[in-house]
Design brief:
The structure holds 2 protein chains of 2 kinds. In chain A, about 0% of the residues lie in helices and about 50% in strands. Chain A is built from no helices and 11 strands. In chain B, about 0% of the residues lie in helices and about 55% in strands. In chain B, a hairpin with a 4-residue loop joins strand 7 (about 60-65) and strand 8. Classes of the chains: A mainly beta, B mainly beta.
């Protein structure tokens, strides 16, 4: 296990298209988080899962965004009808329980909407 | 909700100097304060953290201090080296429960050789 893995690393898409990102957390971590990071800003929380249950969603997560973690392992984040404002780095993180051992971030997926 | 302010946004120092980054938080219930280092194009990595029952924590050249009364905490890096150049993020959270850190906007530290 080499840490949190995210795919793809980069995605360029045309406005209005749908995109899906994948995150594979550290295998023994039961919590998985999605963040968005824009240039010059810290990571902004989007949503998190405890096992397969999605427990919290930020107001930043509009109806065009949906996240799943069907078997409590990997997670997907889908953005429908992308807009230029969706361009950002999407970071995934995982932790064991309530983050007692700190988050481990993935390398992120950089989305560019043209 | 929690609000974390981080200053300065950019910090430029000479190699060997000390660097201090300060953060304030708003939620007095926050009790866990991690710091992350993010090098260009890489993931944020935890470098040090402090819990509210501790006033100061050190790890080699880095230290973090916490003032619960004033609701601020700081990262101190001594004897800076060029490889310390990165963006540093502070965060505040409530350990246990949902445990979702609120991040500061980041400080870009540049260490000149």
């Amino acid at each position: 296990d080499t840490g949190v893995s995210q795919n793809p690393r980069h995605k360029i898409t045309k406005r209005g298209q749908n995109v899906t990102f994948r995150c594979d957390p550290i295998s023994e971590h039961n919590r998985l988080y999605w963040y968005r990071q824009t240039l010059g800003q810290g990571p902004e929380f989007l949503t998190y899962f405890q096992n397969e249950a999605q427990l919290e969603k930020s107001r930043l997560l509009s109806d065009r965004f949906s996240a799943e973690r069907p078997k409590g392992s990997f997670s997907t984040l889908e953005i429908q009808r992308t807009e230029q404002g969706d361009s950002a780095m999407y970071l995934c993180a995982s932790s064991l329980d309530a983050g007692l051992y700190g988050y481990t971030f993935g390398s992120g997926t950089r989305l560019t909407v043209v | 909700g929690e609000n974390v302010e981080q200053h300065p946004s950019t910090l430029s120092v000479q190699e060997g100097d000390s660097a201090v980054i300060k953060c304030t938080y708003s939620d007095s219930a926050s009790n866990y304060f991690p710091w992350y280092k993010q090098e260009l194009g890489k993931r944020p990595q935890l470098i040090i953290d402090i819990r509210s029952n501790v006033g100061e924590k050190k790890d080699q050249r880095i230290a973090v201090t916490l003032n619960k009364t004033a609701k601020h905490f700081s990262l101190h890096i001594t004897e800076t080296q060029p490889e310390d150049s990165a963006v540093y993020f502070c965060a505040a959270s409530i350990e246990g429960g949902s445990y979702i850190p609120t991040f500061g906007r980041g400080t870009s530290l540049i260490v000149h050789p």
